[in-house]
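Lecture notes, part 5. Sequence design as translation. It can be helpful to think of inverse folding as translation between two languages: the language of shapes and the language of residues. The source text, in structure tokens, appears below.
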């Protein structure tokens, strides 16, 4: 078997970072971490305790209580889409988490995707972006072949905003298309129906392989009020589409049970009947191990000033098992680090942007700045990405990038063509990819490093992420370029005009800096979730296990016949 030449990377924190710098970085991050936790709690509260009490008064559980009851004891809940719609009002009302909980968790040792209508927010209604959030979770499950568990308690569209959630390519009806695609791919879908399931809420569970209804639940195309108005029939919604109808008569549901707790036990039992996880098989006899250095230190490794540098090897040492890593092509394209590590005993490929200065023997002084992509680094990344795809190795992209090299020499070298090759590679990869926006995610570099437009299974931001075409000051200079001289100074002697230009540039810079806020990106679904830096390792454990859990839907080579071994042979340094 070809040996994977893992080497130890990283150092004890005291060996490369002074305690004062570490504490300064940690302190600078503290407010952002506190804000993240505060806003998570705000979303998790739904519409507040009064609405929780209303749910409990009906003898029902809230959406998050249902998830807690469904998962294995001690299993994590990795929520995605927490901040969808954050900070936005619809018809004067907020929709925390777009009124739906979507998360990864474990049931009988298997990762599943859970989609649960938040019955503390307008009775689980679908708001603008609720369909897109549900579809994003379904797409993650489809790509990873994870079982989907729907916890349905949905009163249909939030009607005052129906024009923003009913029509369109990703409108509410696209949820049912995703149901169908999951079914066609053989991905198990299980549904528990707990209450109001009207119109689209009634359609959502039907394609599932198992449908369980509680005695309080009903599924209807139209509820009792609409039936009374249209047909003058005085019926309850339970009469129209309760368990008596759908379990005993129509066959649209499989089982009935007394309450939420009983339904969840049935769903857990159905998951247990599914195929077991392939994760242990793909560990190849290697036991999971923690990183050599604590992931909790990551919060203090990133400088408070985003223009300052750090060592990405130290970041990796706090993400991979035992701090062991196999770097490929280390002498080429040094602005990018590529290689393989283990996460929870499973092989994962990494592509990471280096910071600071790197070697370039063709330049005076022999150095050039990293944090951007040059020709050799682009070609190296393309080759590595293609090989990981060929070998079936899941890929993690650690982004901290300002863009591509620019200028006469860059164009002469054909960076557009090399960049297009990398974009083609990432667009056609079928191996699972996860993108983490560590800090800067700017310009075409964000695209090249497998940003959201290139369909990673999962894209995470951190509290210090900055997602934009360019920084605010740079963009203001570009926008006002015709008003500036060659030194980017305002080219006018008129005090009134100068003041107007200064104010315009300042306003633009501040607006762009505000737009780079990760919460705005999360609200728009430009990222899947905001996570603390010290949580990244936990998320990579999920990504690694979920990528290897299912069998037979993608190529997964054993490590002795990896294409990566060929790369190492043909790129190794030769003696004179």
């Amino acid at each position: 078997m070809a040996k994977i030449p893992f080497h130890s990377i990283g150092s004890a924190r005291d060996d490369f970072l002074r305690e004062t710098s570490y504490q300064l970085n940690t302190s600078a991050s503290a407010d952002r971490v506190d804000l993240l936790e505060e806003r998570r709690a705000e979303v998790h509260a739904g519409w507040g305790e009064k609405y929780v009490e209303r749910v409990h008064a009906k003898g029902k559980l809230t959406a998050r209580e249902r998830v807690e009851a469904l998962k294995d004891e001690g299993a994590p809940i990795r929520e995605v889409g927490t901040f969808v719609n954050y900070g936005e009002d619809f018809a004067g009302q907020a929709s925390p988490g777009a009124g739906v909980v979507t998360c990864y968790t474990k049931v009988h040792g298997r990762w599943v995707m859970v989609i649960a209508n938040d019955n503390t927010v307008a009775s689980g209604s679908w708001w603008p972006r609720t369909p897109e959030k549900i579809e994003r979770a379904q797409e993650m499950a489809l790509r990873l072949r994870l079982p989907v568990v729907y916890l349905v308690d949905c009163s249909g569209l939030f009607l005052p905003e129906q024009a923003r959630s009913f029509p369109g390519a990703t409108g509410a009806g696209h949820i049912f298309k995703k149901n169908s695609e999951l079914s066609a791919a053989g991905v198990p879908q299980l549904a528990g129906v707990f209450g109001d399931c009207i119109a689209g809420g009634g359609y959502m569970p039907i394609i599932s392989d198992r449908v369980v209804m509680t005695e309080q639940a009903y599924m209807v195309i139209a509820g009792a009020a609409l039936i009374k108005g249209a047909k003058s029939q005085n019926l309850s919604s339970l009469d129209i589409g309760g368990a008596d109808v759908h379990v005993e008569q129509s066959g649209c549901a499989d089982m009935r049970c007394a309450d939420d707790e009983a339904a969840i036990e049935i769903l857990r039992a159905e998951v247990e009947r599914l195929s077991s996880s392939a994760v242990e098989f793909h560990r190849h006899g290697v036991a999971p191990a923690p990183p050599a250095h604590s992931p909790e230190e990551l919060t203090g490794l990133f400088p408070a000033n985003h223009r300052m540098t750090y060592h990405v090897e130290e970041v990796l040492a706090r993400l991979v098992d035992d701090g062991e890593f196999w770097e490929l092509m280390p002498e080429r394209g040094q602005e990018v680090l590529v290689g393989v590590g283990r996460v929870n005993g499973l092989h994962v490929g990494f592509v990471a942007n280096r910071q600071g200065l790197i070697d370039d023997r063709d330049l005076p002084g022999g150095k050039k700045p990293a944090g951007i992509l040059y020709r050799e680094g682009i070609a190296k990344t393309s080759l590595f990405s293609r090989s990981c795809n060929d070998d079936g190795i899941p890929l993690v992209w650690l982004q901290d990038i300002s863009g591509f090299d620019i200028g006469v020499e860059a164009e002469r070298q054909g960076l557009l063509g090399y960049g297009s090759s990398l974009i083609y590679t990432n667009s056609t990869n079928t191996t699972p990819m996860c993108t983490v926006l560590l800090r800067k995610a700017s310009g075409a570099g964000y695209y090249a490093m497998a940003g959201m437009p290139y369909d990673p299974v999962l894209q995470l931001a951190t509290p210090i992420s900055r997602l934009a075409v360019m920084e605010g000051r740079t963009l203001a200079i570009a926008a006002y370029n015709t008003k500036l001289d060659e030194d980017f100074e305002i080219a006018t002697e008129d005090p009134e005009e100068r003041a107007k230009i200064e104010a315009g540039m300042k306003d633009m810079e501040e607006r762009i800096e505000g737009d780079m806020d990760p919460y705005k990106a999360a609200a728009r679904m430009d990222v899947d979730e905001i996570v603390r830096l010290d949580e990244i390792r936990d998320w990579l454990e999920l990504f690694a296990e979920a990528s290897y859990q299912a069998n037979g839907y993608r190529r997964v080579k054993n490590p002795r016949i990896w294409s990566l071994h060929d790369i190492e042979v043909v790129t190794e340094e030769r003696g004179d």
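The translated text above is only one of many valid answers, since several sequences can fold into similar shapes. Residues 472-515 form one domain.
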